[in-house]
Amino acid sequence: MTAPAAPALTIEHVAVHFGGLVAIDDMNFVVNEGELLSLIGPNGAGKTTAFNVITGFLKPSKGDMRYRGTSLNGLKPHQVASLGLVRTFQRTSVFRAHSVFDNVLTGLHLSGRSTLLDTLLRLPRERASEHELREAAWEILALVGIDNHAHEYAGALPYGDQRLLGVALALAAKPSMLLLDEPVSGMNASETGRFMRLLGKLRDRGMTILLVEHDMPMVMGVSDRIVVLNYGRIIAEGPPAAIRENPEVIRAYLGQAAAKRAAHA
Amino acid sequence: MRRFFPYLVVLLLASVPAWLGDPYILNAFITTGIFTIAAMSLNLLLGYTGQLSLGHVAFFGIGAYVSALTSLGFDVELFEGFHVVHEPWPVVYGLLFAIVFSGLCGYLVGKLSFRVRGAYFVIVTISFAEVVRLVALNWVELTQGPLALTNIPPFTVGFPGIGYTNLYGKVGNYYLVLGIGVGAYVIIKHLVESRIGRAMVALKENESLAVSIGINVTRYLVLAAVVSAAIAGASGSLYAHYLRIIDPDIFLFLYTVTMVIMVITGGKGTLAGPVVGGALFGAIPVIVRSFAAPEVQWILYGAFMIAIIFVLPQGIVPAIQRWFARGQTNPPRLASQPSVSAK
Questions:
Q1: Residue B330 contacts A, CB cutoff 8 Å
Q2: Which of A87, B167, B245, B280 could make an S-S bridge to A179, C-beta 3.0–4.6 Å?
């Protein structure tokens, strides 16, 4: 990063305890506007817990979280989403029994502007709002590249397309920052390639992204900075090149084989 | 063709009094219609938000009592020497108050009980219905208790200047029920085919995913409860002014079960489901009655219900939709309006 960017998301001294178990000990990091920050670490390091706590699905035991100056502490998930901080889920998460198009239409919930009375009586404002939502849904489907599947059941899509639909749902909530939880896990190489092109498009639009991912070549390729978690603590932070060389990271997380691959890359 | 089907059904129903001579059958049409409206309101909660309210009859009964008391008037001593007196008002205010008051009860029950889901929610709603029944039974000064509220005036229709007429007759009541039924159907249709309806269905299917895209769970569950309770209240009001006598038995669990059966067999989560289920379980007692003893009637009623659930677990309407959609791979649209894109 050349110029010091403004912080978008600030995490300070956040801890999450489940009874006596410490899932996250003392987490501190900042995601700047427009940045792609990756959060990596071995299984059980607390990455998904970090996502859950930032997006309001879990309450932190202590610590402060702020997004663009607004405190996230105590907010419910839907309130966090309405601030523009929208997540995807690790496991495939779509409304399976509905069409791809209706999924995205549902995702556009926050963009609707008709009142209850407009809806019950189907007044002109309701029709106009529905019309806008449908146009917006087509735009999102085209951006993500699944518009050719618009009228198929979400549950019937190939795996990679379901993951893309999960991202389309998140994008429909009009986020200024996306939190992606292992978006390419289980994808084949060509699906991963499609996903990385989508990430590039989103970054061109100035989207701030927090990424949790196990696919190391991808993480090294797309990240501006990387934060490494192990046993609920941050053990390293820096640009990909520095993380790749960091002996503690190699020992704690990447292991011999990955270290060798990193050296060849 | 499918677009015009609902209009055809309404036209057909509107023509019924013209060719149906038997007042007993017309009576069955009217009571079936009233319970079908209640079932439609239950479907909004059960079918679209996935929350099973087994106390739904409470809103129906509250609507009936509020409407009856508004039109009959009452004089209740709340404290020593403190009377609340209400003079009789026209029946149409009874209907309005029934809708508003039942909706308010739906709001309170929703606000309190949607902190819990599943079985706990079911128990809260059953308890609510039972409490309301005990109030109706024991607050004799207001409700006459088991002696029943009698001489409830029938609906009046008319316009200022032209004059009013009382709907004592079955035909008038039939059209009133049909009109309110169509109104309730249209309101529910508008609701479920909107952004609000999509939010409700999203909550039912995957609550975590729904909240992650900014849908406020409590808000939409409570909204569904309010609209559902208000429509149930309207059907209760129709019931009170048609039968012209109501007692605390109106809160019997049996009536809730009847509504649930209508929704489940017809197909929960479909607009036509409660209408089909309502028509079916309104017709069965009438048909069975013609050849079976009273005890056998109930056995046949139950057996028929089990048979439908066994053969068509999703309900009748979804089965018909699947039959028509066979060979097509695309899912039915959530919204009925054609999509605007050139796709």
A1: yes
A2: A87
